[in-house]
C-alpha cells in the first residue's frame, strides 16, 4: 500500500532528480504560473498535459486555490503516485496521442490555459500537429498553451542553438559542482525495487508507458504545429539556454 507520506517523499525525490536536468526548474514553474495568474481570472480552468506525479499541478493550485486543474498523463505509476500524494487534484488517465482525448476530460466550459513541463517533447512530430489541433478545440479564444521544455533551434539558428546548450550546461555545472543528484534511470530502478509499487509497476509495464527517447526536440516543430492548429502569437516568455517556456495564444 502506497501511503500519502511515502508518496510525498517519492515525489520530493522525483523533483530532485528532475532538477538534475533542469537546475532552474522552479524558476520555470514560477514563470509559467505567473502567466496563468496574469490572465486575470481567480478561477481559471487549466489542463496539465503530461502531468507526471502532479508537481506542476500542485504548485499551480497552491498559488491559485480557486483554479480547476485537470491533470492528464498515460503512466499508471506516476498517476498512482500523484493520487496518493495529492488527493485534492483530479488526475485523468489519457494518452494524448489518441484522437478524441479531449472528450474524456469532463470539461464544463472552455479551457483558459493548457500547461505542460518537460513532457511534450515525447510526442512525435507526426502526432504533435494532431495533439495541438485537438487542444485548440477546447481552449477559449485568447486561451494559452504554456509549454516548458528543452526545445532546440538547430535547424534555424545552429550557432545560437549551440550557445543555448552551452549556457544550460554551465548553469548545471555551477549548480551541482560535480555532485549530480540521482538521475532518471536510478529513480525508476529504485521505484521498481519498492514493494509498495508492485501493482502500479505491473500496470505501467502492461500499458507500455516507458519512454523511448525524445521525439520532437526542435522548437520549429512545435511552433509550426501550433500555427497550423490556429494559434496566432507564439513566442518564448522565459528562457535560459535551450530551456524555455513557449507560449501560444489561441485565435
TrEMBL record:
A Pfam family per the record: Methyltransf_25
Gene3D superfamilies listed in its UniProt record: Vaccinia Virus protein VP39
Domain Methyltransferase: 46-143
Gene Ontology biological process terms in this record: methylation
Single Gene Ontology MF annotation: methyltransferase activity
Keywords per UniProt: Methyltransferase, Transferase
Protein name: Methyltransferase
Species: Streptosporangium carneum
Organism taxonomic ancestry: Bacteria, Bacillati, Actinomycetota, Actinomycetes, Streptosporangiales
